[in-house]
Structures are given as C-alpha cells and as structure tokens.
Design brief:
Blueprint: E1 4-9, E2 14-21, E3 26-33, H1 36-46, E4 53-57, H2 62-71, E5 75-79, H3 81-86, H4 96-109, E6 115-116, H5 121-153, H6 166-175, H7 180-210, H8 215-221, H9 229-239, H10 248-254, E7 259-264, E8 267-273, H11 279-289, H12 300-310, H13 312-333
C-alpha cells in the first residue's frame, strides 16, 4: 500500500494539490506552479517517495503534467473528468481545492475505473505528428470544398473535379479564365491548398523519421490487406502498449467499434457502435475496410454476406471491427497477417448457377 496519495487539480498556470496518508488524513495541501520546477518543488517539499500515485483529471495539460511526474519517479493516474464529477461527494460545491480532495480520496479508495493511458514519449510524439498531419489534410479538403461550392453557385459545378493535384487546379483556372473574379478566388484557394500540402509533406518526412523506432511493428501491420503506412501508424499510436488490453474484444471496444448494449431482464438489444475512443482510428479502419468490396480481398466473403443482409455501411463497420481485432492480435503475438486464421476457404472456386427460367431460343428459318 502506498504511504501517500496525491490529488492534483491541474490548470494552465497554478495547480492545487491535496496529500493524504493511508489512513485518509490530510497531511499537505496548497498550490504549485504548473511547470517542471513547480512539480519538482511538490515532490521535494513534501518528501514524496518514488512510486507515489498522483491522480489528475483529463484536460489540456494533463499529459504534459503526467509526463513530468513520471520523470520525477511518481506514478500519474489520469482519470476521466466526467467520472470524477459523477462520483464527487458534493458535485454542486465545486472548487479547485475540493476537486483535488475528491481526486485524492477517490485514488485512495480505488473507486475510479475510466483511467486514461499515458503513452511513452516516442508514441506521444508519433500521435502529435499524426494529429498535425490530419489538421493540414483537412485544411486541403476544406479549400477544395470551398472551391466546389463557389463553382456550383456560378453554375460551373461540372468543373469541380480532380482538384487534388496541381494539374487539376491548372485546368480549372484555365477554364474560368474568362471570369476574372472567379479566377482570382480560385487562385486564393489554390495558394492555401498548396501551402497546406507543403506542411503535409514536411510532416510526412518527420513521420518517416519517427517510424524508424517502430519499423518492425509497422511492417507487420502493413501485411494486412488494405492497411497502408498511415493506417498502420495510427493503429500503433492509438493502441500504444497492447499488453494493457486483456483481449482483442477489449481493443475493439477501446476503438469504439462495438455495438452499444441495452440489456434488462429478458430484453437484450444492441444499437449503434459506441464511438468511444479515437475517432481517427475508426476513420482509418473504415477506410481500410472498404477494400473488402474487392473480390481479391480475404474478407470479401464476410463483407458481401453482411452487405446483402444489412447494407453497405453496416458491412464496412463490421469489417473495420474485425480488422481492429486482427491488427491487435498481430501486435500482441508478433506475427504477420495469416489468411488461414480467418476461418475462410481459399480458392479459386468454380461457381455453378441454377436458374428457374431462361429465354427460349428463336427457331431458325428453313431455307427454300
């Protein structure tokens, strides 16, 4: 049992702390600056031994503080802020000191269940780079959509095709050359699109350097059909340490790809997916899952059966769920993709169809 428990209500400038012993007696409280020096002062002044658990809520600077606490030898425990508020003893009497006390008391009594994983520095850097890349990719998409809306308003919607390359932009500007105002707006949007593309290229270069530390795991993930470098890097960054998941089912639930459950008595119903977890991982897995519509994809039989029964979107979600479990198992076991473990038969097959009706052949005319 830890001799001390610390609750830390973190803010951008000052953080409020409460320290309790194993019996629940408050042995220290106050404020420290939210800086590496301030956190060092907290440890030194109150003589916190290595391994002392420190509870803090999720927030903007939570990972920053957690990383520095870990460097000091303390054990940060990042708790979901909503759970802290739901389990607070006095939820209508909120203050920084009371929040720190609630965190400390909840940590000592071990009542929190939604704990946020603090990734290692290398994984955290990979997450940040992927996040910045997504930001500039979305900026490019926003510029393309803005030009499409502009062209549709001018009755030229048929020109808004193939705007993801310089050649496509050049053809568009040449087509609207007789309209100076429209061409000027198009040049503004192309400049912003081009600037965002330069940032994407720079971030992809930095991403390539960061991925060298995970080269073997990324190569292993890319052996799965439909999984490219960005999908593999996103999966690795989100799952981080796969040993923290008891099973593949828990990994899929962490990605938010499991159906919500409504069970009470004899009623057992399932609804939409929970969407809890990384939205970007779900988006990447759904992109990879759409490759299953191709007949050469190993999951194509699974996809076509669900597509005929429940529709295209439902089939994509189901394949994305299965991909999440497959990728997790590959990372956990350290193995490449193996089609023989999918529970499907490998072809080629000969298909025979039986028709109930067919057209009659017209009789040939007899020659005289």
């Amino acid at each position: 049992m830890a001799p001390y428990y610390v609750g830390l209500d973190v803010h951008s400038r000052q953080s409020v702390f409460v320290i309790e012993d194993a019996a629940g007696q408050v042995v220290g409280q106050g404020e420290v600056p939210t800086t590496p020096e301030g956190l060092q002062q907290l440890q030194t002044q109150h003589r916190l031994p290595a391994g002392t658990p420190v509870a803090l809520e999720t927030g903007t600077v939570a990972f920053f503080v957690a990383r520095h606490l870990r460097r000091l030898g303390l054990e940060p425990v990042v708790v979901d802020a909503q759970e802290v508020r739901l389990k607070a003893h006095r939820p209508t009497q909120k203050s920084d000191r009371r929040d720190a006390y609630e965190l400390c008391e909840g940590l000592r009594r071990d009542i929190y269940r939604i704990l946020v994983h603090v990734p290692p520095p290398a994984v955290s850097a990979l997450r940040d780079t992927l996040s910045r890349r997504r930001h500039f990719v979305r900026l490019q998409t926003a510029e393309i959509n803005a030009v499409k809306r502009l062209l549709r308003a001018a009755g030229l919607g048929h020109l808004s095709r193939a705007l993801r390359t310089e050649v496509g932009w050049g053809k568009l500007l040449a087509a609207v050359a007789p309209q100076p105002d429209l061409r000027a707006f198009g040049e503004h949007h192309r400049a912003a699109w081009r600037c965002a593309g330069e940032q994407v290229a720079a971030l992809e270069h930095a991403l390539g350097a960061q991925q060298r530390a995970f080269a073997r795991d990324l190569e292993r993930l890319e052996t799965a059909p439909g999984v490219g470098p960005i999908v593999a890097a996103t999966t690795l960054a989100v799952f981080s340490e796969v040993t923290r998941f008891p099973s593949a089912k828990h990994a899929a639930s962490y990605a938010g790809l499991v159906p919500s459950t409504y069970q009470s008595g004899t009623r057992d119903a399932h609804g939409r997916i929970t969407k809890r977890g990384s939205a970007e991982l779900r988006a990447m897995l759904c992109e990879a899952a759409q490759h299953a519509r191709r007949p050469t994809h190993p999951l194509h039989p699974y996809f076509t059966k669900l597509c005929a029964k429940r529709g295209y979107k439902m089939a994509v979600i189901a394949v994305a769920h299965r991909l999440a479990r497959i990728l997790f198992a590959m990372l956990r076991d350290g193995t490449d993709f193996d089609v023989h473990r999918l529970g499907i038969a490998v072809g080629p097959f000969t298909r025979t169809t039986v028709d109930a009706y067919r057209l009659k052949r017209a009789p040939r005319a007899h020659r005289a």
